[in-house]
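Severity: low
Component: inverse-folding endpoint
Summary: output formatting inconsistent between runs
Steps to reproduce: submit the following structure tokens with default settings.
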């Protein structure tokens, strides 16, 4: 057996893992080992630093609960969630389908149903806005009976799950498009908010002197029979953090600026945004999984 040095140890590990029957697992693990070892050599990682990193990752795991996923938060703040979604969009996004954005940890299933133009603010108070438009297919035709799910912070920057009584659902709901694919939602102008900063990811963000904020946004999840589910969000362009989102979720095409007097708004006196979402037909290989909180776990709470 040859003595290993700091370069040959990499090949020795890869040679031992070459027996992996699953070709994709073999490919992913081989690349992971190559990159991990190269990283350790590049930064000249010391044993104390590696033990510190293991303690950090242990704490990340210990911070996870059925409704808090600190590993996803770590992935989000490292830009890895966005990278994975960007690659998936590039491979699978059809035509000019609306760009995707992060699901985030605050999605809940079985939110209340509302009719065209009704307000999702059943408890919270604050300045109002309206979002309306159509859900369109690749041919630009309205998609009837699509489900438009929406969730957001209130005017103080808090989700209902963070409020005193998380059993009460507020600032979220489900709408159905009409025969022409139209939807209209009355809501409050959301406020940007800080990602959860009381765990190990928050400690790291502070050590990096990052602000930890997400710009104000409204999450949207759009689904229709036979179409690929769209997970996206609309971002308010006037937010101070629009160019420095801590989780890198913003795309230019998703930025909106509510204004009064928008033609076609169900209430043109209220600042409104017209936004048409484009969804693509579901392909046989499509999976519904996206990098975000596990909604089934939150719903089960
Ligand atoms: C959110 O948009 O709600 C969110 C996304 C990623 C991390 C934290 C929050
Ligand atoms: Fe959010």
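Observed output (run 2 of 3):
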């Amino acid at each position: 057996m040859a003595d290993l040095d700091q370069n040959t140890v990499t090949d020795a590990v890869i040679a031992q893992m070459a027996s992996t029957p699953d070709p994709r697992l073999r490919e992913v693990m081989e690349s992971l080992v190559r990159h991990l070892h190269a990283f350790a050599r590049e930064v000249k990682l010391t044993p104390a630093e590696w033990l510190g990193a293991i303690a950090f990752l242990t704490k990340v795991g210990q911070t996870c609960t059925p409704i808090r996923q600190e590993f996803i938060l770590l992935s989000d703040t490292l830009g890895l969630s966005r990278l994975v979604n960007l690659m998936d969009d590039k491979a699978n996004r059809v035509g000019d389908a609306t760009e995707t954005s992060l699901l985030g940890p605050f999605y809940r299933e079985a939110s209340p149903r509302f009719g065209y133009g009704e307000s999702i603010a059943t408890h919270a108070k604050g300045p109002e806005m309206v979002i309306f438009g159509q859900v369109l297919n690749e041919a630009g035709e309205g998609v009837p009976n699509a489900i438009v799910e929406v969730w957001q912070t209130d005017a103080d920057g808090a989700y209902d799950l963070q409020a005193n009584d998380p059993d009460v659902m507020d600032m979220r709901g489900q709408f159905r498009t009409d025969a022409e694919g139209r939807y209209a939602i009355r809501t409050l102008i959301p406020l940007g908010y800080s990602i959860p900063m009381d765990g190990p990811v928050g400690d790291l963000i502070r050590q990096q002197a990052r602000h930890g904020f997400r710009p104000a946004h409204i999450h949207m999840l759009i689904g229709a029979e036979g179409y690929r589910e769209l997970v996206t969000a609309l971002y308010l362009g006037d937010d101070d953090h629009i160019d420095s989102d801590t989780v890198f979720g913003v795309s230019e095409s998703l930025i909106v600026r509510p204004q009064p007097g928008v033609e076609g708004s169900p209430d043109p006196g209220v600042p409104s945004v017209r936004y048409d979402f484009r969804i693509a037909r579901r392909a046989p290989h499509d999976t519904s999984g996206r990098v975000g909180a596990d909604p089934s776990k939150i719903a089960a709470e």
